[in-house]
Amino acid sequence: MDRYSRDFLLQHPEGVVVHIGCGLDSRFDRVDNGLVEWYDLDLPNVIEIRRKFIGGESGRYHLLACSVLENTWLDMVKIPSQQRFLFIAENVFVYFLEDQVKSLVLMLRDQFPGAELIFDGWKPFFVWLGNRQLSTSKFAGLLHWGFWSHHTIESWGEGIHFLDQWGFFDQPEKRMDSYRWIAPLFRIIKPMCIFHYQLGKAAD
């Protein structure tokens, strides 16, 4: 996710990034290029914890305390003329229903033409498998949405274009050496990947 964010900012240094379901992630501090306008979005109770333990807004960094499934946050985002948007959703969409994800993606396409979207997606079998473990947890919510192919999202509407995807073990990662025994299986099955899309065409 950090690499995708940095790549986006290399191409669009003064772009706008909205991190959906930011939790307590510190990605802004890791990838800030000194020009990006950044929005961390999460539910009000999560943003309250961020303010308490991490800090509040400053300069180009903003907090949005609401659900991304509500449209209230749209009025809080400054839309600079001819600036490109990147939307990041890490470990978020898998907890939504497919209709909710589809509605959100189409809304982003219509409201922010030319925007890029990166998110992690699971295959349905592994959603089911994950829920077998999560069903006994007192703290984790159940997973809902999975899909077999990147074409699923493209089929939702005109102008949604698959750009690329990244899977664990696609490239050598020294920090993953201790898990290399499972690498062949992950390369073949790809139970979870990070997907990269463009939503519509940017205005000239």
Describe this entry's structure for a reader.
The mean pLDDT is 88. The protein is 30% helix and 22% strand. The protein has 204 residues and is α/β, with parallel strands linked by helices. Strand 1 (16-20), helix 2 (27-31) and strand 2 (37-42) form a beta-alpha-beta unit. The longest helix is centred in the middle third of the chain and has 14 residues, at 98-111.
Question: How are the SSEs placed, and which strands pair?
Answer:
Blueprint (H helix, E strand, L loop, with lengths): L1 H10 L4 E5 L6 H5 L5 E6 L1 H10 L7 E5 L19 E5 L8 H14 L3 E8 L1 H11 L16 H4 L5 E8 L15 H7 L2 E8 L5
Number of strands: 7
Give the helix level as a range of percent: 25-40%
Structural class determined from secondary elements? alpha/beta
How can the largest sheet be summarized? 7 strands, mixed
Question: Strands of the largest sheet, in order across it?
Answer: 3-2-1-4-5-7-6
End-to-end distance, in Å?
28 Å
Evaluate the radius of gyration. 17 Å
Low-confidence stretches: none
Oligomer: single chain
* Count, helices: 7
Q: Secondary-structure element sequence? A: HEHEHEEHEHHEHE
State which percent range the strand residues make up: 15-25%
The average pLDDT value, as a whole number, equals 88
Shape: globular
Question: Summed up, what is this model?
Answer:
The protein is of the alpha/beta class.
Task: Provide keyphrases for this structure.
204 residues, alpha/beta
